[in-house]
Specification:
This protein is α+β, with helices and mostly antiparallel strands. It has a nine-stranded antiparallel β-sheet, sandwiched between helices. A hairpin with a 5-residue loop joins strand 16 (342-343) and strand 17 (349-350).
Length: 666
């Protein structure tokens, strides 16, 4: 076995590989850019080598610099993680030439399957059903429009060397095809150093289901069941689960056997993933093969008990697989939520900055399930603009799907993240969405269920009553502490009353609290009662309460006269007042938000790539106004309504902060 492995990556996947290597008794080497000098993967590794400036194209994807780090450290093998150089055949060739083991497939397999155009041709030759499309390279936007019309809209414009949702656009007409081609080409060049583009038919209402395969160099190959990855945003997966709630055993077997056959056809070794789209009749179509470890591999590990990183290392060491297809079972259900540094209230645009608070739920048992958190950050660390905005991958396991979902809900409610925008409220909302709970979702889930973007969660009356009762009980604890303050004037005793008014989400409840040693009984004006107990003291930012025997986890902040509560994707200001205070509060005028309807504000920290309009120009609804680049993604900002540009405050090349005014309208 290897003595030392270098991980040619960063962030959570580097930390993930280090954990398994440590378990196997293998020393690890981290590489890092200037931006990652204090990163968690650098701290965890046995040694670390600096490889250059923050931009990935000057550090993590520069083969020569990584090879120098290997030489300096004396590493015998390299695990590439995902992204960066993980599917770059030139990197695999360089390792082979240097006599260093690549913890991944052979060069020829990477070339055959890693290139999406080539892999589709091979799949077609192997009689695998593929999505209609144009397999050749496309030279310019005019040709892209011509091909799109021949295929028929909608079409998917994709980077041949792409992955992670980068370099991908859906076009529904000629204008979008023209714009999408150029943006995809730019993103592909920036992210992968390869701007080749191809186009295929975009199949509406599909499910995205993938098969995990594992092959060794001795002719053995198995599939480790499937992962359902249909909940996506901008073609990037957000929620994954294993197994799929849609597949039956016959379809699973057919997809698995076809995936293994395809892998063997190209001499594949190591772990890999064959991706399919599946229609409502369970017909499946080959999309691509990812010749690396997938981001969502933990859900497969949780239901099979197989450590995929360990298997990759053992295969790279020349060992045969120790498990057969008959050994692969489905034990329970697993769900993964990707926690991203992106603001769901601003169209999921990237958010950067310092994590002033980062307290994930404890890994291990939670209720009837299990929690796993793969992460690469820490409290006080910084989310950089140079890399993928992933913070963590929160995974839960349960003996069945309902338990896995409930465990995930409680884990999300107890996940504390402050300092940056993040998508915790959104994924919490998904876990409670009826369509997700039913398992009846497609890749159009987010577009269909949140057509106007995510604007938060509106809780039902039952949930509001539970939170109101909990906050009333918590407020009583805080009031008792305030009543016991020392140094007060004589004969000015402060008494804690029993009658309160709790206002939240536009409604209010008159309640009476009866407390005892074990908790409080909160009686509402209609005579209903809620029993509350729990572990919370004033100042705690997490309240673990029990309401009528059911766990209720809330993130707690302080506002004047109450609490800022976040639970189940909702963010609430909860005011707990005496009856007289509530009466006076109803007389207060509401604060009106400033009018920004005539301003184009920068929705995220980013770089202005280009301005598409001029001062004095009349624009139409939906017209492109400018392009902003952040975290390697180009975002086209469009006019929300017809108007005339009165002033432009930014130019191409300018770096802007959130809410900087880009242009003004008459």
């Amino acid at each position: 076995m290897f003595d030392k492995i270098l991980i040619a990556n960063r962030g959570e996947i580097a930390c993930r590989v280090i954990k398994t290597a440590r378990k196997m008794g293998i020393k690890t080497v981290a590489i890092y850019s200037d931006a990652d000098k204090h990163a968690l993967h650098v701290e965890m590794a046995d040694e670390a080598v600096h490889i250059g400036p923050p931009p990935a194209n000057q550090s993590y994807i520069v083969i020569d610099k990584v090879m120098d780090a290997i030489k300096q450290s004396g590493a015998q093998a390299v695990h590439p993680g995902y992204g960066f150089l993980s599917e770059n055949p030139k990197f695999a060739q360089a390792l082979e030439a240097a006599g260093v083991a690549f913890v991944g497939p052979p060069v020829k397999a990477i070339e055959a399957m890693g290139d999406k155009i080539t892999s589709k041709k091979i799949a077609q030759e192997a009689n695998v059903s593929t999505v209609p499309g144009y397999m050749g390279l496309i030279e310019d936007a005019d040709e892209a429009v011509k091909i799109s019309n021949e295929i028929g809209y909608p079409v998917m414009i994709k980077a041949s060397a792409g992955g992670g949702g980068k370099g991908m656009r859906i076009a529904w007409n000629d204008t979008e095809a023209r714009e999408g081609f150029q943006s995809s080409k730019n993103e592909a060049a920036s992210s992968f150093g390869d701007d080749r583009i191809f186009i295929e038919k975009f199949v509406t209402q599909p499910r995205h289901i993938e098969i995990q395969v594992l092959c060794d160099a001795h002719g053995n190959g198995i599939y480790l069941n499937e992962r359902e990855c249909s909940i996506q945003r901008r073609n990037q997966k957000v929620v994954e689960e294993a197994p799929s709630p849609f597949l039956d055993e016959a379809t699973r077997k057919a997809m698995g056997e076809q995936s293994v056959a395809l892998a063997k056809a190209v001499g594949y070794t190591s772990a890999g993933t064959v991706e399919f789209i599946v229609d409502g009749d369970r017909n499946f179509y080959f999309l691509e093969m990812n010749t690396r470890l997938q981001v969502e591999h933990p859900v497969t590990e949780l239901i099979t008990g197989v450590d995929l990183v360990e298997q990759m290392i053992r295969v790279a060491n020349g060992e045969p697989l120790s498990i057969t297809q008959d050994d692969v079972k489905i034990n329970g259900w697993a769900i993964e939520n990707r926690l991203y540094a992106e603001d769901p209230y601003r169209g999921f645009l990237p958010s950067i900055g310092r994590l002033t608070r980062y307290r994930p739920p404890a890994e291990g048992p939670l209720g009837d399930g299990i929690v796993r958190n793969d992460t690469g950050v820490f409290e006080g660390g910084e989310i950089s603009m140079y890399y993928d905005p992933m913070i963590a991958k929160l995974c839960t396991w349960g003996p069945d799907r309902a338990t896995a979902i409930e465990t995930m809900r409680n884990a999300l409610d107890s996940f504390e993240v402050e300092g940056i925008g993040h998508n915790l409220p959104f994924v919490a909302a998904v876990m409670d969405h009826p369509k997700f709970i039913s398992g009846d979702m497609t890749t159009a889930f987010i577009a269909e269920e949140y057509p106007d973007g995510f604007e938060g969660v509106t809780l039902g009356e039952g949930a509001l009553r539970n939170i109101a009762a909990a906050c009333a009980a918590m407020n009583r604890v805080a009031e008792i502490r305030r009543a016991r303050i020392s140094g007060t004037l004589d004969n000015h005793e402060r008494r804690v009353g029993e009658e309160w008014n709790v206002a939240l989400q536009g409604v209010d409840f008159d309640v009476t609290i009866a407390a005892d040693h074990d908790g409080s009984t909160v009686r509402f004006a209609d005579g209903s009662e809620i029993r509350v107990s729990g572990d919370w003291t004033p100042g705690d930012q997490l309240a673990r309460m029990t309401v009528n025997g059911t766990p209720l986890v809330m993130k707690v902040g302080k506002v004047s006269g109450g609490f800022r509560i976040r639970s189940r994707g909702a963010e609430l200001k909860v005011h707990v007042r005496t009856p007289r205070q509530a009466e006076l509060a109803r007389m207060m005028p509401e604060k009106v938000a400033p009018d920004t309807s005539k301003l184009l504000l920068c929705p995220m920290p980013g770089l202005i790539v280009k301005i598409d309009v001029e001062e004095g120009q009349e624009v139409q609804e939906g017209q492109a106004l400018c392009t902003v680049e952040a975290m390697k993604m180009e975002n086209i900002l469009r006019a929300e309504r017809k108007g005339t540009v009165s002033k432009i405050n930014a130019a191409a090349g300018d770096s802007l902060a959130v809410d900087d005014v880009i242009m003004e309208f008459e």
